[in-house]
Write a structure and sequence with these properties.
5-stranded antiparallel β-sheet; about 140 residues; single chain; alpha+beta
Length: about 140
């Protein structure tokens, strides 16, 4: 498979003098960049969400932070502007936390944001591209 990176959505829209990615824009992209298909997508990441667990009596307390993300992706044909394929994916990842055991001992876990969000992005891509992954079934 050959892939040509043509730029961000804003850059490409400016280059083809269009305000939105509609049928005409995909046709114009095909003509401008000499490509037959375009992959278009969007990733939305939630704000960090705290998660708190406290056992009765306070013997164990856990404070963590998670984020949710969704990805929507589509493959567009540039000759006609028709959609050839689309997929969505969602994932949640823990990005840090503190645990306290028996009011004396604690554990601190803060993932590197780059690593945490990288794992999240890879999970989204893996889920969204499942139609293109090889699988087998014993019969």
């Amino acid at each position: 498979m050959r892939v040509v990176e043509i730029g961000t959505q804003d850059e490409v829209l400016e280059e083809i003098e269009s305000k939105e990615l509609d049928r005409e824009a995909f046709v114009a992209i095909g003509e401008k960049y000499d490509v037959a298909t375009v992959i278009d997508g969007e990733v939305v990441v939630s704000d960090v969400r705290p998660d708190i667990t406290i056992t009765p009596g306070g013997g164990f307390m856990d404070f963590s932070a998670e984020v949710d993300a969704t990805m929507a992706v589509r493959l567009m044909e540039t000759e006609s502007g028709a959609s050839l394929w689309n997929a969505t994916a969602a994932a949640t990842r823990k990005v840090g936390g503190v645990s306290i055991f028996g009011k004396k001992h604690f554990s601190f876990n803060a993932k590197d944001p780059e690593q945490a969000y990288g794992e999240l992005a890879r999970a989204l891509v893996r889920k969204a591209s499942r139609d293109f992954q090889f699988t087998w079934e014993r019969q």
